[in-house]
Specification:
With about 425 residues, the protein is mainly α. The protein has a single domain (about 40-430), classed as Amino acid/polyamine transporter I. It has helices at about 15-25, 35, 45-50, 55-65, 70-95, 100-105, 110-145, 145-160, 170-195, 200-205, 215-225, 230-240, 250-285, 295-305, 310-340, 345-365, 370-395, 395-400, 405-430; strands spanning about 5-10, 245. The chain is globular and about 60 Å long.
């Protein structure tokens, strides 16, 4: 018989979740399937916010307006990659009780560890830049505020959301999930309003095609904005101490529940991403607006084409995306620093530090949308440094135990890492050769 004390949590204030998880993981667990699943939903939804952040708005809108439905297949492929990568990250935390950054620190030489830490901190800053600017744009579009004032309000909003963590993981998970719901509903409404060509949508969702270097740049940005390196590290930290299980049978059951969490959360994120590109293709590209280069332009152009409601809905979705993803990015930065170098700074200090580059970009007048796109391309180049160690560690039985990767899983993850690296190399060759 399973030990009832075999299931626990390190987070205070979440005893109800622990009790529900204990019941669901027990041999006698029966009843409503959704009620049994509910205690395990949350970590992937927090990670999924990074997949529908303002960087996605920028890359998807530019892709849709410039190339129509052409790059829709990149979103589909990226989302499938995200499901695989995030399931491995969640599994690493569950099986080993340590996150990806901690495993890197213990198993790689010090110069490699410090090099990876610096690289991932830079990626966290690039991520935060995109998310912060996106939320500031959201405040501007919804309330008509100056962009700099929107930036200050974004910082304040993030502080308030982060304060929820002191009450346990469940409240933060619930709030982030609510933000995801706002974004999803907003784009459901947008898709209904813009009436896309469904035959073209289905065709380009499965047929890979490019159209010049700019399409490759945007495709790379879509990949970087979808399979994001900082949440590869974060997801393993979200599961490592959330519900602790020692029994092998319960480990397998726990991972099955978390796999559903990943599939549902990443599935919603994938649909939202596709809806962004479809909206831009159906609304802008089909009406001859092929040079919608900025998010504010997209918002202004929506109003005469789809009505005032569409512009407001768009702004609300961007605001929800920026606030939630900025919070998640701050947490990811904490995990990366603590895991790689065993140092921790106050989350408030980190939030203030990461606000500075974003406010500087806003103050000097750089194009916020182009800044978002380039930041996502930079993220794509860092992905192999997160995915390769993840594949290595989840393939080792001494680390993973009964949850070690099957050979097919390892092969699939290796192919994903190779494809991303190949896309980056191809982009460099095409760009510098004038192709």
């Amino acid at each position: 018989m399973d030990d009832p004390q075999d299931v626990s949590t390190v987070s205070p204030g979440d005893s109800n979740t622990v009790a529900a998880a204990r019941e669901a993981l027990s041999e006698q667990g029966r009843g409503n399937p959704f009620k049994r699943l509910l205690p395990f939903l949350g970590p992937a939804f927090i990670a999924s916010v990074a997949y529908i952040d303002p960087g996605n708005f920028a890359t998807n809108i530019q892709s849709g307006s410039q190339f129509g439905y052409l790059l829709l297949w990149v979103i589909v492929a990226s989302n499938l990659m995200a499901m695989l990568v995030q399931s491995l990250s969640a599994k690493l935390g569950i099986a080993s009780g340590s996150n990806l950054a901690e495993h890197c620190r213990r198993r790689f030489p010090k110069p490699v560890v410090y090099g990876m830490w610096v690289l991932m901190e830079l990626m966290a800053i690039a991520t935060d830049l995109a998310e912060f600017i996106g939320a500031a744009l959201g405040f501007t579009l919804v309330f008509g505020l100056p962009l700099f004032v929107g930036g200050l309000l974004t910082g304040l909003g993030t502080f308030l959301i982060l304060a929820l963590e002191r009450y346990g993981f469940r409240r933060l998970e619930a709030l982030i999930t609510a933000f995801v719901a706002v974004i999803a509903v907003s784009y459901l409404v947008e898709t209904i309003l813009d009436r896309p060509e469904w035959k073209s949508v289905l065709f380009h969702a499965v047929i890979p095609r490019f159209s010049g270097t700019e399409s490759i740049l945007l495709a790379t940005g879509i990949v970087g904005a979808t399979v994001m390196p900082h949440v590869v590290f974060l997801h393993s930290a979200l599961t490592q101490g959330r519900i602790v299980v020692r029994d092998e049978r319960r480990l397998k059951r726990l991972f099955r529940f978390e796999l559903i969490d990943v599939l549902v959360a990443m599935g919603i994120a994938g649909v939202v991403n596709a809806a962004m590109l479809v909206m831009a293709a159906a609304t802008f590209h089909s009406h001859g607006f092929t040079q919608i280069a900025t998010i504010p332009e997209a918002s202004k152009t929506l109003e005469p084409l789809l009505g005032t409601a569409a512009k407001v809905i768009f702004g609300i979705s961007l605001l929800a995306s920026g606030l939630s993803s900025s919070t998640v990015g701050t947490n990811a930065g904490q995990v990366i620093m603590q895991g790689f170098i065993q140092r921790r700074i106050s989350v408030w200090v980190r939030r203030l530090v990461t606000m500075v580059p974003s406010l500087v970009v806003i103050a000097i007048g750089l194009d916020p949308t182009r800044t978002l796109v380039i930041s996502q391309v930079v993220l794509s180049f860092a992905l192999p440094f997160a995915i390769v160690p993840l594949v290595i560690f989840t393939s080792r039985r001494e680390i993973m135990g009964v949850l070690v990767n099957r050979r097919l899983t390892t092969v699939a993850a290796t192919v994903v890492a190779t494809l991303i690296l190949g896309l980056n190399v191809y982009l460099l060759i095409q760009t510098f050769s004038g192709g």
